[in-house]
Amino acid sequence: MALTFPASPPSLFLFFFFLLLFFSLSQAQVQTFTYVNEGEFGPYITENDADYRVLPPFSSPFQMCFYNTTPGEFYLALRMATRRSESTFRWVWRANPFSPVRDNATFSLRPDGDLVLANPDGKIVWSTNTANKGVVGLKIVPGGNIVLYDNKGKFVWQSFDHPTDTLLVGQSLPCQRADQAPQQE
Ligand SMILES: *[C@@H]1O[C@H](CO)[C@@H](O)[C@H](O)[C@H]1NC(C)=O
Questions:
Q1: Which of 47, 81, 122, 159 has the fewest CB atoms lying closer than 10 Å?
Q2: Is the CB of residue 88 less than 8 Å from the CB of residue 81?
Q3: Does the keyword Signal apply (predicted)?
Q4: What atom of ligand 1 comes closest to residue 102's alpha carbon?
Q5: How far apart are CA 185 and CA 20, in angstroms?
Q6: What radius of gyration, in Å, describes the C-alpha atoms of the chain?
Q7: Pick from 144, 143, 49, 41: nearest CA to 87
Q8: Where are the domains of the chain?
């Protein structure tokens, strides 16, 4: 199939210039990251006696972590910890309650705006299905809601819409639709 381009060289140049500019702008906007489930475990005792690895997303008293209670079976989770004492380290949200991941799994916000948890072989275990929906970043907002927001600050996805076994203040329990019901793999 032949594509017709503007005829004269200067306009052809401009065409590709703006095409490139468009792609670089639309990609560069997303604050991408990739965190690998590796390294030392954290020093504190947590609920369920779990081992954990702290991840950068943090908003006191909430912190994202990988944790496991069985070797090699990790959950991507949100920890709530108001004090460094045993009783207050709780897991209040899990991304993948039925599909644990292994060491070296990756948690990433991709350039297309999808938030993805994948095993080291690249197999995707969980994602927010937010590719190409305008997501520019991830943050934890007060109350412990993990959100993906667009460039107007609107929440494209929020963990409060996907509760696991703990409800935080301000979080409601949505009527569960059949397509969102937990599924055992
Ligand atoms: C994780 O990856 C690192 C670096 O590639 C490797 O040295 C380590 O053995 C891996 N860990 C596991 C449990 O596979």
A1: 122
A2: yes
A3: yes
A4: 13
A5: 42
A6: 20
A7: 49
A8: 33-170
Q: Sort 3 into a burial class: Cβ within 10 Å, 0-12 / 13-18 / 19+.
A: exposed
Most informative mutation of 36, 51, 104 for ligand 1 (most atoms within 8 A of CB): 104
User: May I ask the CATH class of domain 33-170?
Assistant: mainly beta
Structure token digits, residue 90: 């709780």
- Tokens standing for 157? 């996805």
Taking the C-alpha atoms of residue 118 and residue 102, their distance in angstroms, rounded to an integer, is: 9
Q: Tell me, what DSSP letter sits at residue 101?
A: B
Q: Does ligand 1 lie within 6 Å of residue 150's CB atom?
A: no
Number of neighbours of residue 63 by Cβ within 10 angstroms: 21
How do residues 70-111 score in pLDDT, each as one tens digit? 999 999 999 998 766 555 688 999 999 999 999 999 999 999
Whether this prediction's pTM lies above 0.85 is answered by no
Nearest-5° Cα angle at 119, 184 to 29: 110
